[in-house]
Backbone:
């Protein structure tokens, strides 16, 4: 049984706006899945179904095999945490600390655990110094960090991040990426994220779905997806820089072991240069 699944999921916002058209999506436990696609493809609409912020017009969403419905949504929300694309949709408490504590408080955790989780999440996202500030006066990137901290403090089974890197400075993106990479192995957490920053995809994802006009037009491993030129053109994507370098290395007879990252690619380039010298 998969931790999260949609079957023939359709969603219409009203007459004529068919935002999702028969989406079949599977997230195995402890996987990291990227959902890609152009503006208006339906990514945020899909994500809002994962914890019952929206319900299907037809088809279904299943958490551990059980339908996400008005009857189950309260329980599902304890396990599936969403970071919205726009942090203003998420942040509403008088202080940052209270905002990050909101989820853990709702889970009914004891005061000590809440404090520990909140401190950890604030420190991880580098926003401890903002703890007593009112969130609505923060910068865009600061708000985004607070929104992510609030969901991480809930320690959900499934972490859904809609454009997690938008608004973050480059080092903030790196810190977040390094942290997200540890979660599936450490806690068996499943991560689903959308992004327009394709360079994040090989860093994080082990599987990719591509949406266009509400339909899945491609799915596969990172390498499978980014070698399909027609698919990339249709979905307004481009090849991530890391994959491009790997392709060039391959053309020079250098094969990288699976699971390579930026460091392995850099090492392979240096070795190749040394060999040619
Ligand atoms: N509340 C709404 N009411 C009516 N139409 C909506 C609403 N929200 C989204 N839509 C429409 O549904 C479609 C899918 O939107 P969605 O926000 O899911 O796209 P997206 O893939 O997340 O895009 P982006 O990359 O810009 O975030 C779009 O055509 C959008 O205009
Ligand atoms: Mg969106």
Residues:
């Amino acid at each position: 049984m998969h931790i999260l699944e949609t079957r023939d999921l359709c969603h219409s916002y009203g007459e004529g706006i068919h935002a999702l058209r028969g989406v079949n999506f599977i997230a195995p436990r402890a996987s990291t899945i990227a959902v890609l696609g152009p503006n208006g493809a339906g990514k945020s609409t899909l994500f809002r179904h994962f914890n019952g912020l929206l319900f299907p017009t037809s088809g279904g969403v299943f958490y551990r095999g059980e339908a996400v419905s008005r009857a189950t949504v309260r329980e599902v929300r304890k396990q599936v945490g969403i970071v919205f694309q726009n942090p203003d949709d998420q942040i509403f408490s008088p202080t940052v600390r209270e905002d990050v504590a909101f989820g853990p408080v709702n889970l009914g955790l004891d005061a000590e655990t809440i404090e520990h989780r909140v401190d950890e999440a604030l420190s991880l996202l580098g926003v401890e110094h903002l703890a007593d500030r009112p969130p609505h006066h923060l910068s865009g990137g600061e708000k985004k960090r607070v929104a992510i901290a609030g969901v991480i403090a809930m320690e959900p089974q499934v972490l859904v991040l809609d454009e997690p890197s938008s608004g973050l400075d480059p080092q903030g993106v790196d810190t977040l990426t390094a942290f997200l990479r540890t979660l599936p192995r450490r806690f068996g957490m499943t991560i689903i994220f959308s992004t327009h920053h394709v360079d994040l995809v090989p860093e994080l994802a082990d599987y990719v779905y591509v949406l266009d006009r509400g339909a899945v037009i491609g799915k596969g491993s990172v390498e499978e997806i980014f070698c399909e030129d027609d698919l990339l053109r249709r979905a307004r994507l481009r090849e991530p820089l890391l994959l491009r370098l790997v392709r060039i290395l391959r053309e020079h007879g250098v094969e990288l072991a699976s699971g390579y990252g930026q460091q392995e690619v850099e090492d392979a380039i240096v070795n190749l240069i040394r060999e040619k010298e």
Q: What stands out?
A: The chain has two domains: 4-234, 240-277.
